[in-house]
Write a structure and sequence with these properties.
Layout: H1 10-20, E1 24-25, E2 27-32, E3 38-43, E4 46-50, E5 55-60, H2 74-82, E6 84-89, H3 95-101, H4 111-114, E7 119-120, E8 129-130, E9 135-146, E10 152-163, E11 168-170, E12 175-176, H5 178-181, E13 184-186, E14 193-195
Antiparallel strand pairs: 1-13, 2-3, 2-6, 4-5, 5-10, 6-9, 7-8, 9-10, 11-12, 13-14
The structure holds flavin mononucleotide.
């Protein structure tokens, strides 16, 4: 079946993308406005994009149609205003708290308080990180790719990364116990997520070991 993106509506294109590009890691973004108010929200249009320099990307969409046209989601507005943010990663244990922070609260409501979460000061950026998250990436805004009046891709350069102590296998070699992080991914539809309960190993094949076919 071919789906032609030139003729489909925006909601249908969204449905197709989010039903097929799965699972998507979730950036649980903590940002701050110019007055220092802390904001948190999850974004699954997210991934690590480059290793060197270390760059992550987040797609921040528009607000709901009933909201004022042209107004940014708070996370996007804050990243524009202060140029710094923290990407926390979401574990199975923190899934419900993450979901609370996705509620479209008015600007003055603190999502982290509503979700019963606590924060810890970051080392290099102003917004704090979420204490309950097993991984947090302190980021400096690298670029904003504008996609309309109220939506954009935010590119962030990672300047520091925190990993919960019990998930670090060897600090000197930077070996992490990845399965122990128990991170979840966003899947399709109204509220499907995935948990990494099955894995397999497949080492890369060096070109010298490959017998070329004619
Ligand atoms: C798991 C999950 C993933 C989400 N991913 C995105 C996303 O990639 N882009 C987006 O604009 N909104 C996404 N949302 C919706 C935002 O989290 C929601 O609009 C939030 O209220 C925005 O908050 P803010 O205005 O404080 O930035 C997602 C929600 C959930 C629950």
């Amino acid at each position: 079946m071919l789906f032609d993106f030139d003729t489909l509506s925006a909601p249908d294109r969204y449905k197709l993308l989010t039903s097929t590009i799965v699972p998507r890691p979730i950036a649980w973004v903590v940002s701050q406005d110019a007055q220092g108010r802390v904001n948190a929200a999850p974004f699954s249009f997210f991934n690590a994009l480059v290793g060197d320099p270390p760059v992550v990307g987040i797609g921040i969409g528009g607000r709901r149609p009933e909201d004022a046209p042209g107004s940014w989601k708070d996370s996007g507005a804050n990243i524009r205003a202060i140029g710094q943010f923290v990407v926390n990663l979401v574990s199975f244990e923190t899934r419900e708290a993450m979901n609370v922070t996705a509620i479209e609260f008015p600007h003055d409501v603190e999502e982290l308080k509503q979700a019963g979460l606590t924060t810890v000061a970051s080392t290099k950026v102003k917004p704090p990180r979420i204490a309950e998250s097993p991984v947090a990436l302190e980021c400096e805004r690298l670029a904003i790719v504008e996609l309309g009046v109220d939506r954009a891709i935010v590119l962030g350069r990672v300047v520091a990364l925190h990993v919960r102590d019990d998930c670090v296998l060897d600090e000197k070699r930077c070996y992490i116990d990845t399965p122990k992080l128990d991170l979840i991914g966003r899947m399709h539809g109204g509220g499907w997520y995935s948990r990494i309960t099955e894995r397999f190993e497949m080492p890369r094949i060096p070109v010298e070991k490959w017998a070329l076919k004619d």
